[in-house]
Amino acid sequence: MNCEDVQIHLHDFVKRRLDPALNGDVGAHLEGCAACSSAERAEHVLDELLEQRLPRYAAPNAFKRRLGLLVGRPASARVEPGRWTRVIAPAMAAGLLLLAGGVLLSRSSSQRSELATLTSEVVNDHLRVLASEHPVEIESGGTHQVKPWFEGKLDFAPVVPAPEGSELRLRGGSVGYVFDRKAAVIVYALRLHAVTLLVFRPEGLPWPDTGARQLGPARGREVSARGFNVVLWRDGGLAYALVSDVNEEELRGIAARFAAATVHAPGP
Amino acid sequence: MSGEVSSLDMTPMPLERWSRAHAPQRAEDTLAHADALYNLARYLTHDAGEAEDLVQETYVRALRAWSELAPGTNVKAWLFRILRNAFISRYRHALRHPAPAPYDTTEQSPEEAAVEGSSRGELEAEQLRRVLSSELEAALRTLSDDARTVILLDAEGLTESETAMVVGCAVGTVKSRLNRARAALRLKLADYAARDPS
Fold this sequence. Notes:
The complex is a heterodimer. Chain A is built from eight helices and eight strands. Chain A is an alpha+beta fold. Chain A folds into three domains: about 50 residues, no CATH class; about 50 residues, no CATH class; about 150 residues, MucB/RseB, C-terminal domain (Phosphorylase Kinase, domain 1), CATH 3.30.200.
């Protein structure tokens, strides 16, 4: 088996989908061929990149709900085919009216649902920080240690707000996920409370804009879930979620200071 | 299967005209594939709104052909095939009279051989590891639609025979396309890594 033969099968070899005999032949060639062995390593790395770093776009929740209507979810009383044939015209008209009315009436509930989904996700991320034995990958002696650590780990440069002149203390940072995308997880301590700031790209995420209030120089939403308070805001092409069990007013104050630090930051 | 799909009416039906009463039994299970379909649609159309339109049209076509779906069919691959056909009919009308495309044959042109050869061995794994998400996405977007499709379907976990069903060609052709597409992607990534001063 020569190099050309091996390279044709290299991807299947890496994916472990060759039959045993062919797998053995390719493996034997790789042991004695530096060029093909190098190409095999590059194939491995390319698979890792595609799996771990290629942005994956999730269908927006509102769109999924529309698809749900199309395919019959949520379940509802269905009209039998025979009866449908007899009443097709009025049923179609009623369906159109229902759809049009539903769009108007469900807009606010849709926003609430999107907010609840996002809130639940960031609270879960905060809980992971609380439950972890090692909640930060980079321990902090200051923001100038934490911010550079994110270089090469994310496809954006998160601002790491410095909590100067307050009881808030920067503990460190790590990389996590919000839904399908990577996020900077920046962990602070306020007395005995943990405060988590998540920074992530908002593209493709349904973002509830209604009900936003002024938050320092930015506009944000304040919500609560499962005993935790959450403040959400966006700026410079990035989204921010601040989560903690500290009281609402105190967290709002921290969020306003952080928003002031992030609002003029360059976009990703 | 290809005949069933290609014989469908290509005129998209507006969502509001498709009654839920017509949704076939178990069609709601296809929602599990909505994210994967939308992801491929985003990479094909480069636009969130167009991706939604394309996925919606995919579901409309799938529901119309649902009764013809043979038992045991891989529904995910079948949906991908419908999406690809819908994409071609919506965005690539020129394909009705196609010119020879780089990824459409198992024969390799001298340019492709050069591309493949130059990418082999020269690009070290360590260089690749420095590539950022945005660079990877940008590199993928420079490839042809067919090359991008086979890479994404492979990353999605489809086997080569399933990918062959989606793109409508022989398994050997898929293998060849995938190898060349990945070589071209590595070459693009090498360009990015070479430009990176770090």
